[in-house]
Amino acid sequence: MNATPSILAGALLPAEAACFEPGESAPATHALLQVRNVSRQFPGVQALTDMSLDVHAGEVHVLFGENGAGKSTLMNIICGALAPSSGQLLIDGKSAVFRSVQEARKAGVSVVHQEFSLAPDLTVEENLFLANEFCSWAGLLKKQAMHELAKAHFQRLGFNISVRARVSGLSRAECQMVEIAKAALSNPRILILDEPTASLTEVETGQLFTLIRALKSQGVGIIYISHRISEIQAIGDRVTVMRDGRFIKTVRAANTDKTQLVELMTGRSFGGFYPHIRFQPGEPVLEVSGLETSKGLVKHASITVRSGEIVGLAGLVGCGKSEIGRACFGIEPKIAGSIRVDGVEQQKSAPGRFIESGVAYVTNDRIHEGMLLTRNVRENLSLASLALPALRKKGLLARKAEKRESFAMARRMSLMPLDIERAARSFSGGNMQKALLGRFLARRPRLLILDEPTVGIDVNAKAEIYAVLEQLVGEGMAVLLISSDLPEVLSLSNRVYVVREGAIVDELVNERKNEEEALSGFFVKE
Prior knowledge:
The chain has 526 residues and is of the alpha/beta class. It contains 18 helices and 22 strands. It has helices spanning 6-9, 71-78, 101-106, 124-128, 143-157, 172-185, 202-217, 229-235, 258-266, 321-327, 351-356, 366-370, 377-382, 399-412, 429-441, 459-474, 486-492, 515-522; strands at residues 31-42, 45-56, 60-64, 86-91, 94-96, 109-112, 190-194, 221-225, 238-243, 246-252, 284-293, 301-306, 309-314, 334-341, 344-345, 359-362, 392-393, 396-397, 447-451, 478-482, 495-500, 503-508. A 6-stranded mixed sheet has the order 6-7-8-3-9-10, sandwiched between helices. A 6-stranded mixed sheet has the order 16-19-20-13-21-22, sandwiched between helices. Helix 14 (399-412) packs across helix 15. The longest helix has 16 residues, at 202-217. The model is unreliable at 1-29 (pLDDT under 50).
């Protein structure tokens, strides 16, 4: 890598690759990428069947479908991580065979995966140039040149991150921005973005959309994978819907709506999204008063969650709402305040003590903190219940009982495929999330803390999780829902606490529980 990427230099591709407005039909000529009748088989699974797709210069082509629909498999074939079982790829009308991600990158195909691939012990700039370092004729690193280019790159993108910061110290949203910057630096002709806004605030999402429009103006073809229909209509030109590994239909983003997209995705009529939960709040299960954490991200926070209700925590990414949830499970140490579960003070408790008190916590990072990816789903489902009498026999694990209970929970959570001996890493993100939730429900907790439970999962999987929550609340469980998806937290919660800079600044109930009131609390009033 010796030349400055064109996104920095401001160079444009030929005029024939000019950008077109969202909603317009893609040009009949100059297809950068053509996917023709691509199929992919895995042992016992047909992941893709005769899938076809075109991506034109200067368009955002959205891939839309349920988890497990084949989007990730198709993406991995396009970027060289997988080879198709049959079919072909064409770049500029010429057959392309990628035997590695590096070969695809050389051909102008870059990808930003939903799950990060950064080296945590390296700095931002070191990650940016990893395997593409600037070297002198003597083989020495040109560190200053890389630093200056990285700094200029981030300034142009509008990402306010120090390029000398160590990745391990960055937030999830900041890591997402580094991944995007890394892909943009390679001067891609085809850029694949997989759920790129899952960890971004509204401001950061706006910056990403500005970048996408800049890339479109340079003739870059963008494949955008998202489950957020509002984003699809805001940034997309065309939408290709997939189901069960097959092409269903390509529609213009501006001429379709949520109902049509969901019906195309699921193959059935759309009868509503959020359930109408009838709350019957009982006695307080969780009482938090004057909570402060050791890292200073939570400041004098007080909340109450009662049995038979969902209470939401809403706020911008990084506002401290996740830290409140983690403190209520003993992950974030508290330095002041009190946490009571069923009236019992939790003094300097570790997560194990909270579990014994009937508290369950589902992390917002299922890959790194949640699932054991190399173990099967049976073991993942039973992990939190191994000490329960139902799974013990003479002090040893009762294998038959474990298998029976794990299968029953997998069926309850509508896990697909219903194969508990299959490795967790082979399941889609939505099914991993359902399995992670099922792990803790197996203990029948009194209080369930959910941190971003639907990030990166499809509409159908969300609806299934919502249905489970409705059932749990009906059975008297208390639920603390932490979500950056404002419509989600407002629609599912009985009450919503607004969090800003680590403090509770408002409580929304009844007619005040709306987006306008919530957003007004997110920002400091001038």
